[in-house]
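Morning F.,

Quick status update on the modeling queue. The single chain you submitted on Monday has been processed. Sequence for confirmation:
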Amino acid sequence: MRFIYACDIHGDTNKYERLFQKAKEENIEYIVLGGDLLPKRGIRVIIQPEFIKGFLNEYFKKLNDNNIKCILIPGNDDLEKLDIQINELCNRYTNIYNIDNKRVDIENVSFIGLSKVLDHPFGSKNRVLVEENLKMQPQLSEDIYINKDTAIITIEEWEKYRQTNVDKMEDILSNLPKADKEKKTIYVFHNPPYGVGLDVCANGLQVGSKAIMKFLEDSNSYMSLHGHIHESTRISGLWYNELGKTICIQPGQTELGEGKCYYVIIDTELNKQYRYEM
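Structure tokens below.
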């Protein structure tokens, strides 16, 4: 199986188009998108539903017309309350698979996805989790948005709220669909694991999940695909590493409007992966 993997497109239509053209040029049947599909600029409650209904619908149709399948998860910047709309769109097409908290078996591969991320400094607490011994980072916004971005609380209220009202990464991972032992398992987790160079912020802070790190170490899975920290590859110099027998990949991404798009082409038969920019 050969596929293109990219993440953190954030509604950049030029990047979407480049990935489509690359799949056509290379005769690749699959595109895997690792979260943060929708625009994050402006008023997201208005822009993101319009993007799903308009561009994303037409994009999925174009992929279908060209016999290209797309496997995807949302990310923390994609409003959780729009999951119903995303699922309805994906269900219109037989070539589109939303694997958030689900498993899909394609050819000799089982894909299992998770959109959730650890609590971060940003005010929009969309899809965030905590884990054992995770300290709250200094917050960049005085207003904290919870309950799918509809309720606003203070930083002090959030500090108390997250202690009892936010799920733990360990629990979410333990309840994921089980892998098919007869197939190669690829996890698509928006949050990268801790400590293997795929989670490094511009300030050098490692913000990956220790629970995901342990999960992958114990899983004996074939591969895991990540995103979330756009600049990590630039800061650490690493876009892949290994945890036990699991190959972990984080291609990184440029910001909206910047010229380049980072992606990886993966061949599960030849056990090879190559990172590109275009």
